Amino acid sequence: MTQALFKTLALRPELLSTLKELGYGSMTPIQAQSLPETLQGRDLIAQAKTGSGKTAAFALGVLNKLQVDRFRVQTLVLCPTRELADQVATEVRKLARGIHNIKVLTLCGGQPFGPQIGSLEHGAHIVVGTPGRILEHLTKGNLTLKDVHQLVLDEADRMLDMGFQPALDAIVEQAPTQRQTLLFSATYPPEIDAIAARYLSNPVSVTVAETHDSSSIEQRYYHCDNNDARFTALETLLLAEEPTSAMVFATTKREVQQICDDLRNRDFSVASLHGDLEQKQRDQTLIQFANKSVTILIATDVAARGLDIDNVDLVINYQLAHDTDVHVHRVGRTGRAGAMGLACSLFTDKDRIKIEKLEDLNGEPITAATLPRPSSSTPARPQMATLLIDGGKKDKLRPGDIVGALTKDGTLSANQIGKIHVTATKAFVAVELKLGKTALNKLTEGRLKGRNFRARLLRS
């Protein structure tokens, strides 16, 4: 089937030029179905999974309509979490780089309030933020939506899951009625219909099912006699498969933390992700998992939604998802970008109805597999170690400065350094595990930008 090309769209020349520079030739299915409607000014309901290219699907429509010479907030993008808001803002800035003087501002909870007020006073064209913090700025009069002509609700289902419905209602009430509203959602619970009826005007609906190639994912199912047997099965699978990066899904925050604690007591490299964690903990956990200094991430579905994490080679459903949409979403975390992935699901006799639904989804009966024999009784160590530096963008610290400090005397080479993530006040750098202490000594004993910065190794 011929793929739709970006150059066939009525996009401003600067955007087409940037897309060409980025190597974006063909559109993903969600982009091909939604962008023509968005460019015509239609309201849109789009159902698509994480990793489908949905951010570019709405960002290109937003940027195409933006009037740069009007220094007003013209677009508001609402996201359920700070992590997703940061990802969206980064993607928008990347696509906008050919259009001069566009200001994109993120407003999220878990960040100091004062600097955000200062940023708002300087103005912005596009605001990306979480509902709670956006409403707070609106209530205090720091932000006005009177010039907004495009409203985007990203991961709308998750915003409802997290209890943001009242905040969404209050925000939308302050937006002009004459606007374009784009709603993106990974699943489509009944509540989405309700808010779509209130927020959107004659929307067109677009649905893209799976965005990953299911042939690249091997699915296995393991029967457990009881809940105690689940943990034994989990430990066995982790020891047998020796993943470099694995996600384990559990139902409740309490279960997630208990599994994490139990695995850590058995020397696994593991971290948890759930709603009770402070933003600082969430950020640190995600950075360590993405840079391969934590091997296993235990998460609830709500906490893991909207995360753009590549190269997960194993997914384990500690409990089966309540519905098949969520199951597909979990499994789709692996087997991306042409890589092969493995998804293992644990179930008991009480899960009979869920198994029947999955059989209907897969179009074939599910047969319980036999647990593999562990190749070792010792958990594999992570590939990398993460160092935290107490300095960031506000200190003019850049990734190149960190690489230079680590490699200047030849003790470390550039290919022994992994991902570097620099925030406003902190910097995180991954190095090969065996070189963690060496790298720490170089950073603490040497100088960065002519200054001494404190640094420490994060626990894996």
Automatic annotation (TrEMBL):
Motif Q motif, residue range(s) on this chain: 4-32
Name assigned to this protein: ATP-dependent RNA helicase DbpA
Swiss-Prot/TrEMBL keywords: ATP-binding, Helicase, Hydrolase, Nucleotide-binding
Domain Helicase ATP-binding: 35-206
Domain spans labelled DEAD-box RNA helicase Q: 4-32
Membrane spanning residue stretches: none
GO cellular component: cytosol
Gene: dbpA
The family this protein is said to belong to: Belongs to the DEAD box helicase family.
Organism: Halioxenophilus aromaticivorans
Domain of life: Bacteria
